[in-house]
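Posted in: Protein Modeling Q&A

I'm a second-year student putting together a small comparison for a lab meeting, and my supervisor asked me to include a predicted structure for Homoserine dehydrogenase. I've never done this before, so apologies if this is the wrong subforum. The sequence is pasted below exactly as I got it from our records. If anyone can share the structure token output, I'd also love a short note on what stands out.
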Amino acid sequence: MSSIRVAILGFGTVGEGVYKTIYSHQDKLSKALGKRVEVAAILIKNKNKYKNRGIDNRVLVTDDYEEILKLEKLDVVVEAIVGQEPALTYLQKAIQKGCHIITANKEMFAVHGSKLQDLAMKRGVGVGFEATVAGGVPVIQTLQQLLNINRIKKIEGILNGTSNYILSEMRTNHLSFSEALQAAQEKGYAEADPTNDVEGYDAFYKLMILSEIAFGGKPEWANVPREGITTITEEQIKGAEKLGLRFKLIASIQIVAGEIVGSVRPTLVTESHPLFNIEGVENSVSIEGDIVGRLTLQGPGAGMLPTASAVIEDLIHVVRANHHSLTQFSLKEGVGLVEDADEEGNQNWLMIHPGEAQLTSVPVSVVTETDHHIYLKADEPTITTLRKRNHQASFFEVLGEFQLKKSV
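Accepted answer (user: helix_wrangler)
Welcome! Here is the predicted structure, written out as tokens:
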């Protein structure tokens, strides 16, 4: 039986998981593809540190990418490196060699995904990137299937397991942010430098990738509000719980008045919302289509095997697909024509500890007001104005059905 030869760039958690899965599931891969899948090469940073990692001695292990490109036969390159470079350059060279590429690198792909798609289309090879968004949760495959007929109206998701774990721990175990972060680091859920996770960058990159798939384009990055969870307090967590609300770091993208509008920020969700019960390191994405309605996907968003699962499924897809018929990202037909109840961009907000709130001369509809909260409907620019006028108050979007009772 002939073989499909694969190179793995990077041998950290993801790279090692892919290597192990290829060999543990060789029989199923062979049946699915009609060929064996063989790891031909692995690129590592330091050749002296790869010993005792369980790598077959027939595999080329090198810290020189050019050695891999010189292999006579190479079909697929799997990239599991961190950062934009050298990952982008490596993948461009792989495409030029005629290899399919698969990546788990969300930052690189958020910035350069269109460029890689375009180059791959010209060379007639495939690009797999399921692992860039939600680990083992098949969000991208689902969106691509939905887009045959459905128009996507809105996507909301918990795309970062570290932040979700921290918020869950703060609520259930009454921890401060710093205590919950330390617990996440001790369990290996958070890096020594957790900035990408807790400041919302990781979720932001993933949201930009989803935007291109769903809508064929991205909003201006500078126009997308991005807030992390570092300022969320125990007091706010407890106060929200008394109101039947939970804090989640929500990434959201939708069409408003023909424009793609996104945000990444701590958000309050009600029990009626599908993301309310997503706890710990789980990821979940809620997708609204104009025909199918709302679909919610949930599962492990990170880790060795969940991410390897996404890569292996991409491997099947890129090898089987007819890549000469691929089209690059482009604005989807009909985007902005879907009727939406929130076409003007209004959202529901909870203003916590408003004090002597200044709400005059701004277009808001105050639904309910108490000593500690104001529940209102307003658009993004209005909330920005209110934040400037009310420095002591906190503003959080509310998702799901909610009614603030004056007796609270």
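A couple of things worth pointing out for your meeting: The chain has three domains: 3-128, 139-300, 347-399. The two ends are 70 Å apart (CA to CA).
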